[in-house]
Every structure is written in C-alpha cells, then in structure tokens.
Amino acid sequence: MSAQPVPLRFGLVGTGHWASIVHAEALASTEGIELAAVWGRNPAAASALAASHQAAGYGDFDAFLAEVDAVAFAVPPDVQAGLAARAAAAGRHLLLEKPIATSEPAAAALALAVADAGVASIVFFTARFQPDVRAWLAAVGPGRWSGAYAIWLGTALAEGSPFNTPWRREKGGLWDLAPHLVSLLWASLGPVEAVSADAGAGDLTHLILHHQGGASSTVTVTVEAPEAAARSEGFLWGEGGWSPMPADTGRPVDALRLALTELAANIRSGRTDHECDVRFGRDVNRVLADAQRQITGA
Fold it and tell me: What is the rounded CA–CA span in Å between residue 18 and residue 35?
C-alpha cells in the first residue's frame, strides 16, 4: 500500500461570511489538505474562526505566510490583490476569489507576481467547478454556436443580506456577478476579444461580448434586484437550436473542494497552468475594466 502524501498546509485569508461558510468548510474537509492557519484584518475574528477548525489564528501576515504552503483568499478584491502578490513572492500557491482585483493594473501586477514566483494558482469561478457545468461545456464546445444570452438579477444589497458589503455597494453587479457569466461564455463561445457596455438604473449593467471566431453574447447583471425578480439563467443558440446553462447547485463548498483538489494536484506535480488560473482571472478582469471605462469614463 502506497503512503498517503503529507497534507498541504493551507492558510485562509479572511474571516467574513463567505470565508466562514464556504472557504473554511472546504479547506477543513478536502482530502490531502489541512487548514493550518487563518489571517484576518481583525485578529480576534481570525483567532475565533481558526479555533473552530483547530487551526492557528494570526494578525501578522508574514508570520501567517511562514506557516503555510498555499493561501486561499476570501477578502474584498482590492484587498486580495496586494496580499496575494505578497504571498506569491513568498512562494505560496494561491486560491483566489473573483474578481482577482478591481482595476486592470492591479490584476496585471498580480498575474506578473505569480508568474515571476512560479507558483500555482486557481481563481474560484464557482460554476466552472460544478461537474454538471463541466459536462455541459464539454458537450457544447466553442465554434458551434452563434451567440448567447445570460442574466443574473441578484439581491446582494437587500437589507440584512450577509453579502451587502462595502465593495459590492461600490462596484455592483459588473464586478461581483459578471465575472461568473463572462467566464462561462468565454469557455463556451471562445475568448472575448471586445466588449460594449451600457448601464441602467442603479448598478444595472448590460454587456455585449464579442468572441473570437465571430460569436457574440449579451450579459445583464445587477445586485440590486427586488426579491421577487431574483433570477439567473442563460443559454447558447445557433443552427442546432439552443442549450441552457446548468443552474447553480447552491453548493459552493462542493465546488471549492474540487478547485482545492485541482490546485493541490498542480502543486504536487509542479504544474502552474489551469484553465481558471490567475492569467484567466486577469483576462476576465480586463473585460470588466474596459466595460467600467465605457460606463463611467474612468
């Protein structure tokens, strides 16, 4: 019987709702991985979350990095970008949240830091780690479709929502929800070569994506939809008819376990490439930043 590999020691950056209910749970229950440390901007919260998973809490980021092989991030994207670059420079592999940053320069700098350090990375575009979505993407394949439509009317800014956070109030659906849809459309229709963007009331955002090969798609997102209007759906269309995107399973911990498993496999094999690595996160970020410039002029 072959010996089991020594578990990879992962650290968690973040102590908020998503960090607690998704990241910590996945890190503590993925085979071959140990949740060893938690760092947060609130050291008391880091210690409390760490204690609930028999890990160590840290308020010093460098001391935290010294105790782990890899880092999973669950903090606002503008915070993530700088800390992740520091972690990469220290030789730590990265599990990143989307978007990887909230500006094109910050995303490019992070991707460069990861490349310079030669570490492995995965960006957690949730649906891309759902088995049913992967089966759908394998079946539809780029080049077979004329276009697509995707909409996500989210309610993150509803009173009492744990997702009603400052960065979402500032950046809206373009940066919170559109990355998921752009990622799926990129994988199903081909790379996005250009985007046209317009805005409606509040944070309502409309995108037209122009894909390599000639297909085009539309995306509509908001995090301010009324509860009664909450909805997420999409489909591809072409000569063969239409193909609906699989629905969200509502089980993000399962998806994150798969992302962590694939990141761990890359770390052990020495591979640094993945279809959802930091370079892909940078490319999606570029689309978002271009759309933002068209809408706001900045």
Answer: 16
| Tokens read off for 129 | 């780690």
Specify the DSSP class assigned to residue 271.
-
**Alpha-carbon distance values, 32 to 26, 252, 265 (Å):** 12, 19, 9
Return the half-sphere exposure (C-beta side, CA atoms, 13 A cut-off) of residue 87: 32
The whole-model pTM stands at 0.96
33 and 93 Cβ atoms separated by less than 8 Å: no
Question: pLDDT digits over 51-102, tens only?
Answer: 999 999 999 999 999 999 999 999 999 999 999 999 999 999 999 999 999 9
Measured CA to CA, the distance from residue 12 to residue 53 in angstroms comes to 11
Structure tokens at 121: 């990375």
Strand ranges (E), the chain: 8-13, 33-39, 56-58, 70-73, 93-97, 121-124, 147-153, 192-199, 205-211, 216-222, 231-238, 241-244
Q: Cα 29 vs. chain centroid, distance in angstroms?
A: 20
The number of residues making up the chain comes to 298
Q: Using CA atoms, how far apart are residues 174 and 198, in angstroms rounded to an integer?
A: 11
Q: What token pair was written down for 64?
A: 């935290």
Longest Cα–Cα distance of the chain, Å, equals: 62
Nearest to 292 by CA among 181, 145, 173: 173
Cα–Cα distance measured from residue 196 to residue 209, given in angstroms and rounded to the nearest whole number: 7
